[in-house]
Amino acid sequence: MIDPGEGSTSGAGYIVLREIEAGHWYVVGDVDRRPGLTARASRVQAIADATSGTADSDGVYAVVPRSEWRVAQQL
Length: 75
Fold this sequence. Notes:
With about 80 residues, this protein is an alpha+beta fold. The protein contains 2 helices and 3 strands. β1 (about 15-20) and β2 form a beta hairpin.
């Protein structure tokens, strides 16, 4: 798991996950949100940033706001 403060800034950003098998997710990375993009475009960009542009087109990805990730870790 990613430490909520590790490698991230306090600004808006995303945690990018990839489904490696049904119901099992792998944390790909923690990336900053790029300003000026719509929510959907921002999430697509987050996947590209987290995978250094090598996202598998057949892969299933999820993008969670960094703030929600932190809240979820506190439960």
